[in-house]
Amino acid sequence: MDIVDLLQSAWPYLLKGTGYTLLFAVSAMVGGLLVGGTVALLRLSKWRILTWPAAIYVSCMRGTPLLVQIFLIYYGLPSIGIQFNPITAGVLALSLNVGAYLSETIRGAINGVDRGQWEAAMSQGMSHLQTLRYIVWPQALRLAVPSLSNSLISLIKDTSLVSVIAVTELMLATKEVISTTFQPFPLYLAAGAIYWCLSLAFEQVQRWLEARMNRTLAR
After folding, report:
1. Are 153 and 202 in contact (CB under 8 A)?
2. Continuous segment of H or E residues that includes residue 64
């Protein structure tokens, strides 16, 4: 079978795997933003009873391999009566992992906004929450966009790890086609090209978001 025929026959499987890869990446990014935003606010709190658990969570998630976290959620939790299907377990593991990194990104972005912005807003009678929501957060978000985009691109590649719990994302789909065609080089090359194209697409989204936010804040 020549390369053109090989890629034509493999394309439906790779396309399905790419769909799962996108599903995992986007779902985990949304979940990670919710987790990361919450953890960042807890770490910025003045109360140690809130900052300590958040700091321990970030340390644990960043200090252990993502693969271990996937195994723990999918194979470990059923032993204490908590069971997830492979897709839910994969999205949950990726969300919790990337959430720890995003929390540091968001915390750094909020701290990066000049302290005078807080003082000026609060001197106008705004509460702490109103200042964060209307004054600080829009500026912090613009600062955080490049790092958030990097996290999403890393997440696209990390989705290949969920193949260990039998989810047919792009990497596992590629392996399945290779097991029947015995032609690893062109198929792994095709998988790499698809990952690259996905990363390029999200880089374009990042540039568009940055330009849009710069225009909004310049008004």
Report:
1. yes
2. none
